[in-house]
Amino acid sequence: MIRVLVVDDEALIRTGFEHILNSADDIDVVAAVPGGRAVHAVRELRPEVVLLDIRMPDVDGLTVLAELRRLPRPPVVAMLTTFDMDEYVAAALRSGAAGFLLKDTDPEQLPYLVRTLAAGGVVLSSTVTRTVVDGYLDNGPREAAVRLVDRLTERERAVLVLITEGLSNTDIADRMHLSTGTVKDHVSALLTKLEVASRVQAALLAERAGLLRPSRSVGGGRPVGGGRPVGGGYSVDGDRSGGGGQEGR
Q1: Closest Cα to residue 187, out of 244, 246, 134?
Q2: Which residue in 118, 127, 125, 75 sits closest to 228, CA to CA?
Q3: Which residues contact 5 (CB under 8 A, 6 or more apart)?
Q4: 8 A C-beta contact, residue 21 and residue 4
Q5: DSSP one-letter string for 15-84
Q6: Taking a C-beta distance cutoff of 8 angstroms, is the pair 234, 120 a contact?
Q7: Residue 208: phi, psi to the nearest 5?
Q8: Residue 5 belongs to what H/E stretch?
Q9: Residue 124 in 3-state DSSP?
Q10: Among candidates 32, 31, 40, 27, which has minimal Cα distance to 9?
């Protein structure tokens, strides 16, 4: 069962997300709270996934994200917004958010996207992916991203492509006929070579470098490069290690 916390200043949004997600057999919304109660709720209820409004009147979503990232075992956090081109999104991804969703995401897709997040996938709104990629990388030259990707071995490139498809370490191991431990080692190595701290940052850099072709959009959000829901949990801890959380880097 995937434990989810919904954080939003609007009661209607909280209730809607809670109703939609609780309709899935494998998802349990443990609470739906305003921003001021988010950190306390995470400490008390220990959700695996947090859907966090990026702009709230009582507390800024980026501030909440920063506090959650400092927890010993932080949850996976995806930012919520009503804006297609929110200037806060790139900052949130730099700060360790695992994704970004519009509040008008197709309700049928929400459980799918939560499963992807819980498994370590990278989920971004399909309508703003290019803006997010450009903003996240500070509009740096594509050549710089290409040079970083060129540091990778052929095996590491293959792992990076599967990361952008939203696959967990376990599923990457199955796809490539490797052990999970070997995949974790490859992930740790490629994060170091790419000079990034998380899978989402690696996936965005890969897209900027042209390592993959953008996939079709799915509702209001999608895993970068396509992706699919897979099992297991994943905790964002922002370091370069191959481990961390249930699934690890």
Answers
A1: 244
A2: 118
A3: 29, 30, 31, 32, 33, 38, 41, 42, 45, 47, 49, 50, 51, 75
A4: yes
A5: HHHHHHHHTSTTEEEEEEE-GGGHHHHHHHH--SEEEEES--SSS-HHHHHHHHHTSSSPPEEEEEES-T
A6: yes
A7: -65, -35
A8: strand 2-7
A9: strand
A10: 32
pLDDT per residue as tens, the chain (249 positions)? 999 999 999 999 999 999 999 999 999 999 999 999 999 999 999 999 999 999 898 898 999 999 999 999 999 999 998 765 556 777 887 788 888 888 888 899 999 999 988 887 778 766 555 555 555 555 456 788 899 999 999 999 999 999 888 788 888 999 999 999 999 999 999 999 999 878 888 888 887 888 865 443 333 455 544 333 332 222 222 333 343 333 555
What is each CA distance from 9 to 52, 88, 98, in whole angstroms? 10, 17, 21
For residue 163, give both structure tokens. 């990361």
How many Å apart are CA 61 and CA 144, to the nearest integer? 30
* Dihedral pair phi/psi, residue 52, rounded to 5°: -120, 120
Going by C-beta distance under 8 Å and a sequence separation of 6 or more, which residues neighbour residue 43?
Answer: 71
Instruction: Give this prediction's pTM.
Output: 0.71
Q: Residue 238 is encoded by which pair of tokens?
A: 């922002």
Compute the distance between CA of residue 222 and CA of residue 114 in angstroms, rounded to an integer: 11
